[in-house]
Write a structure and sequence with these properties.
CATH superfamily: VKOR domain
Number of strands: 2
Strand order of the largest sheet: 1-2
Radius of gyration: 18 Å
Strand content: under 5%
Shape: elongated
Helix content: over 70%
Number of helices: 5
Number of domains: 1
Order of helices and strands: HHEEHHH
CATH topology: de novo design (two linked rop proteins)
Length: 153
């Protein structure tokens, strides 16, 4: 009985740790995307110290979808992951997990597409965009590891 309680407590801690890591990563992604969104509406460009293609990427026709910059969609994506992570930390329900995993998968697919556009169409990279793509990839890796861990148990 005592061992069973200890094991369930360990799973809860692991579970919380997982969602806290998701929360931190998505917050960083939110800051990155929101920074690019603000600059878009100010008609300004971020300083690019690692790459030299920020302006080319951020002024390309691929940087907007309809009247809004893609960075704004990124901010909404990361905000949704933040909200779902907070809900799952405070009130775990499988329903929210069933929303989180597909959302993270879609965010990753969009990031891959945007990375490929930078690499093969624009031949320029925006370091802020790449940071967001790395964060989306990390979110997916964590989600996949979590799913695999759940299937093993």
């Amino acid at each position: 009985m005592m061992i069973s309680k200890s094991l369930s407590k360990m799973k809860l801690i692991k579970s919380r740790s997982f969602f806290i890591i998701l929360l931190i990563l998505s917050f960083l992604g939110f800051l990155d995307s929101t920074y690019l969104t603000i600059l878009h509406y100010k008609n300004a460009f971020p300083p690019c110290s690692v790459t030299s293609g920020c302006e080319e990427v951020l002024t390309s026709p691929y940087s907007v979808l309809g009247p809004m910059p893609l960075a704004l969609y990124g901010s909404v994506f990361y905000l949704a992951v933040i909200v779902l992570s907070l809900i799952l930390i405070t009130n775990y329900k499988k329903l929210y997990l069933n929303i989180l995993y597909p959302l993270v998968f879609v965010g990753f697919i969009v990031s891959v597409i945007l990375f490929l556009i930078q690499a093969f169409i624009l031949h320029s990279f925006c370091q802020y965009c790449v940071i967001s793509e790395i964060i989306a990839t990390a979110l997916l890796i964590l989600a996949v590891l979590r799913i695999w861990e759940g299937k093993k148990n």
